[in-house]
Design a protein that fits this description.
Length: 385
């Protein structure tokens, strides 16, 4: 069955113009950051370019061919930049505009001769295919960094559209899409164009889903973190613990010594600075899978994955020494806070949190009884200052 390409181009243009307007309106609300503006402009450019191409035979060729193809390619390149902005990756506007001009303007060489339809389609399809592959790469990066399920769907969608443009390029290279006619008569070309209209709508839906999923994850993360130090709070640790209990974890109970005296003498602002300093030092010493949680006041918990008691004690001692070195760099302190740390290890998988916490607390109290500023293991091993 033959599909009317001119009608498909008009439908594609209307779809892009409507979606572009919606995304620009979303940007003007100020609730979604910069990416809707870039995405909206890219859709508007593709829509304008498609509309110009659809008018071939009714308007001068410099409008339908020259302007239409240049604007379409510029819009497609803007789509890639939109995804980079969404991913919070750097985008230099001047360099971007230069790149768009250098890539889109060469299509004008194929419009000098009306018979070079296949060459023009080959160039435009090749650029769009490479652009979709670049977007696919960005989507995979977003999926890995932010664990967004919708980013995986987004990547699959662009894998499909890249494949469509690749096939279109091969058809043009083999001469199956050519001739001086306005839109040719290849049925495969019509079906690919119709499929592309559906994908144009789907990709705008998916990027909105990605934004919604990201916002939800950010809200959940905020609810599970201490706003002062950025460490997990109690509910955050409770939520993460089920996955940690299978990894032979060790638990460090950490208390900042002389914290009340520090607050009394220097004020709560300095006390808050000291809490942030500890959190920063501890996070820098931990591995990617380890956890830091603030339990309240000056009390913290550290969860270490897959470590023996000896390794846990060594990690606790490293944190204690690093914090002391950082405190020594703070000018004007009359009270120098230190760390007392209790260490408890599970000795196997399926560790019970309450039991580990009780053992770590007992070791912490033993550390304080024996002079503070030290690490004490629940088994009785100790590391003095």
């Amino acid at each position: 069955m033959m599909l009317d390409l001119r009608t498909i181009y008009v439908v594609s243009a209307m779809t892009c113009l409507v979606l572009g307007s919606v995304h620009l309106a979303a940007h003007w609300t100020g609730r979604f950051g910069r990416w809707p503006a870039w995405w909206g402009v890219s859709n508007l450019l593709i829509g304008i370019g498609s509309l110009c191409v659809s008018l071939r035979g009714f308007v001068p060729s410099f409008v339908s061919l020259d302007a239409g193809n240049v604007v379409t390619i510029a819009g497609y390149l803007m789509t890639f930049l939109s995804v980079r902005v969404f991913a919070d990756r750097p985008v230099d506007r001047r360099h971007c505009m230069l790149a768009i001009a250098c890539i889109s303007l060469p299509v004008l060489f194929f419009t000098v001769d009306p018979g070079t339809v296949s060459g023009r389609i080959l160039y435009v399809s090749g650029v769009c295919c490479l652009c979709d592959l670049a977007i696919l790469r960005e989507a995979v990066g977003i999926r890995r960094r932010e664990k967004l399920f919708s980013a995986g769907l987004f990547a699959w969608l662009y894998a499909l559209t890249a494949a469509i443009f690749l096939v279109r390029s091969l058809l043009a290279a083999s001469g199956q899409i050519d001739g001086p006619g306005a839109f040719g008569d290849n049925p495969a070309h019509g079906w690919m164009a119709a499929t592309a209209v559906v994908f144009l709508a789907l990709r705008s839906v998916l990027i909105v889903l990605m934004a919604a999923e990201r916002s939800r994850n950010e809200l959940v993360d905020l609810a599970h973190r201490d706003p002062l130090t950025g460490a997990l709070n109690r509910s955050g640790l409770a939520q993460r613990w089920p996955s940690e209990r299978q990894s032979s974890p060790a638990l460090l109970a950490v208390d900042i010594d002389n914290f009340k005296q520090l607050n009394d003498q220097h004020g709560h602002v300095v006390g808050d600075d000291m809490l942030r300093l500890f959190a920063s030092v501890a996070q820098a010493m931990l591995r990617s899978g380890d956890l830091l949680s603030r339990q309240g006041g000056d009390e913290f918990l550290v969860v270490l994955k897959d470590v023996s008691e000896t390794e846990a004690v060594q990690a606790a001692e490293a944190i204690r020494l690093a914090f002391s070195a950082a405190v020594a760099q703070v000018p004007g302190l009359a009270v120098l806070p230190t760390l007392s740390i209790g260490v408890a290890t599970s000795g196997g998988t399926d560790a019970d949190f309450e039991q580990l916490l009780r053992k770590a607390d007992e070791a912490l109290y033993a550390s304080k009884r024996r002079g503070r500023n030290r690490v004490e293991a629940s088994s009785g091993r100790e590391q003095a200052a």
